[in-house]
C-alpha cells in the first residue's frame, strides 16, 4: 500500500498528513501484481469497485480521498498529527489492556467474515472480565454512564474513570 508520508499508529490503524501524503498501488502499471496484500486487503477496506479503481489505475491518491475511500483511518493536518497520535495512543493505553486486546481479537474475528465470529467474540470477551474491569463498569454506572446525559459525556468520562481507578490505571 502507499508508502509516502504514512504514519502507522499500530496494526491496521493508519493516519496520514493531510496535504502531504500520497498513497498508490502502481504495480499493475509496471506489469506486476500489487505487493503487500493490496489485492487482498483493499477490497475489504474500500469495496471491490474502489479497490479496482485504485489498483488498476495506478494513480496517486491523496490523504483526503484515501480517508473517504476507507484506505486510511484519518487524514490530519501535519501540524496536528503528532498531538492527535499522542492523544489517541495515551487514551488507548490508559484502558484495561485485556479489554483492548479482547476488542481487537473480536474485531479481527468478526471482520474476517468468519461465520463463527459470534462464538469467538464470547471467548474474546472473557479476557476482559477481571476485577479491575468490574470496578470500572461499576464506576461507569455510578457516574450515570448509561443515562442520556452520561452517554453525551462518554468521551471525557472514560479517561476520568480510568484515572480514578484504585491503581490510577485499570489493568485487567
Characterise the protein shown here.
The chain is mostly helical. It folds into 2 domains: 6-89, Alpha-Beta Complex (2-enoyl-CoA Hydratase, Chain A, domain 1); 95-164, no CATH class. Helices cover 56% and strands 9% of the residues. The protein contains 9 helices and 5 strands. The protein has helices at residues 38-46, 48-57, 63-69, 78-94, 97-111, 117-126, 131-142, 148-152, 154-164; strands at residues 6-8, 14-18, 22-23, 61-62, 74-77. The strands form 2 sheets. A 3-stranded mixed beta sheet has the order 1-2-5, with helices on both faces. The longest helix is centred in the middle third of the chain and has 17 residues, at 78-94. The radius of gyration is 20 Å and the shape is elongated. Residues 1-11 have low confidence and may be disordered.
Amino- and carboxy-terminal Cα gap: 35 Å
CATH superfamily label of the largest domain:
2-enoyl-CoA Hydratase, Chain A, domain 1
* Main beta sheet strand tally, sense and closure: 3 strands, mixed
Report the mean per-residue pLDDT as an integer.
79
User: How many structural domains are formed by the residues?
Assistant: 2
**Strands, count:** 5
List the strand order in the largest sheet. 1-2-5
Fraction of residues in helix = 55-70%
Number of helices: 9
State the name of the first-level CATH class of the largest domain. Answer: Alpha Beta
The ordered H/E elements are EEEHHEHEHHHHHH
CATH topology of the largest domain: 2-enoyl-CoA Hydratase, Chain A, domain 1
Low-pLDDT segments: 1-11
Amino acid at each position: 500500500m502507499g508508502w509516502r508520508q504514512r504514519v502507522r499508529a499500530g496494526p491496521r490503524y493508519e493516519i496520514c498528513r493531510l496535504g502531504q501524503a500520497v498513497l498508490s498501488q502502481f504495480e499493475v502499471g509496471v506489469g506486476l501484481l500489487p505487493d503487500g496484500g493490496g489485492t487482498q486487503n483493499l477490497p475489504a477496506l474500500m469495496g471491490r469497485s474502489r479497490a479496482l479503481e485504485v489498483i488498476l489505475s495506478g494513480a496517486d491518491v491523496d490523504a483526503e480521498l484515501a480517508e473517504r475511500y476507507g484506505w486510511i483511518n484519518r487524514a490530519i493536518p501535519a501540524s496536528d498529527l503528532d498531538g492527535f497520535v499522542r492523544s489517541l495512543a495515551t487514551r488507548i493505553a490508559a484502558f484495561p489492556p485485556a479489554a483492548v486486546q479482547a476488542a481487537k481479537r473480536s474485531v479481527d474475528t468478526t471482520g474476517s467474515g468468519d461465520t463463527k465470529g459470534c462464538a469467538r467474540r464470547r471467548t474474546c470477551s472473557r479476557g476482559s472480565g477481571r476485577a479491575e474491569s468490574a470496578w470500572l463498569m461499576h464506576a461507569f454506572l455510578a457516574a450515570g454512564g448509561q443515562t442520556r446525559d452520561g452517554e453525551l459525556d462518554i468521551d471525557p468520562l472514560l479517561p476520568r474513570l480510568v484515572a480514578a481507578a484504585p491503581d490510577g490505571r485499570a489493568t485487567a
